[in-house]
Each structure stands twice: as C-alpha cells, then as structure tokens.
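Internal tracking record. Fields below are filled automatically when a chain is submitted to the structure queue. Please do not edit lines marked as system-generated. If the sequence contains nonstandard residues, flag them in the REMARKS field before resubmitting.
Queue: standard
Priority: normal
Entity type: single polypeptide chain
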Amino acid sequence: MSAAAPYSGPVIPDVSALDVTSVTSGTAATVTATGMGFTNVVIGVGGEEIGVTSKVMLTADDGTFVELIPSAISATSVEVTVPADLAPGNYDFRVVKADKTSNAVNLRVIPAMANQSITCRGTSVTIEGTGYSQHVDALNSGTGLSATDKTGAEVDCAVRTWTDTSISATCSVCPSSVTVNSIWGADNDRVRTLRPTRR
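SYSTEM-GENERATED OUTPUT FOLLOWS
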C-alpha cells in the first residue's frame, strides 16, 4: 500500500520516462510509464483510508484527447494499451489522478509503412503506399530503393521524387521487385510492368 496522504488530496503524479518513445499506427501497443505518485491513499473525514488511482490521457497537437484505463498500475508504474486506430502524430502522455495532472511526456504514433502498388513503364517506376516519410539523399542514410530483376540481379534505380505516399524513380530496366527502405521500416513487393504508352 502506498503511503497515506492528508485528506487535502492525492499527491501530484510525475512521469519520469516511457519505456518506448514511439509506436506504430495500425497495431495496438503496450506503453509503460515510470515515475511517482500514480497511486496513493488519502484519509477520509471518518478516518477511513481511500485509495486513489490514475488514468492516462493522450492529447494530440490539435487538442483532441484519448483517455486510457491502465491494465496495470502501482505508485511508480502505469501500463496502458495504445489502440491500433490512434491517428499518427505527436501526443502528450499525461497521468491524471483525481484533479491532479502530471507533466507531459511526448509519445509519437508513426504511420505504418507499407507498399500498396509498384508499377513500371519503360524505365519509370512508380510506388504508391503509406508511411514513406522523407528521403534522405545521403550515403548510409537508411532511406532509398533497392531493386532486382527476375534472376535476382541488382537493378540500378535513382529516386526522382519522394513523398509520404508516393515515390517515383528511374531504373536501368524494369525491375521484378523493389524494396523501399524508409526511416520507419522496409517493404518489398513485386513490380507490375505496364505497356508503353502509345504515341
């Protein structure tokens, strides 16, 4: 049992750290916060002990918020499940106990990185998907394309444009498969070859 506090109210919770700083949208994830004052006991007017516990509030940049009920909690630790349908973005993670609110710690929900289609016409490759973020055109940046032909040989491809949902590239030949390497992960898919456009 936590140390008793005066009837004036529970102590203010304080979050020192989260076990993860980011989770991926589309997948439910467990997040554990450590700190102090997440639970305690107050003394009622009749001398009875009253347990006070906390919930977690996630507040988006636009002010909207989600309330999460802990799956496990102690005075120094609270565990919640971030829902899979939470929109990508930055959230202030706060522990709320009665009328007391903790400091905010940032939790980032990143978009799921996935290819939806890859097509090639001539030497032009177009990739559509989600979560590509940005392309860092530098050696060993971890972002870029790798491609192979049907024999498994490497195909040279140069990125022309790169957005969060679309990538265009010029390749030496139409590849058989392409792997997109983004800051959020990698995904490989086969390429659908389109007929040349008639003039």
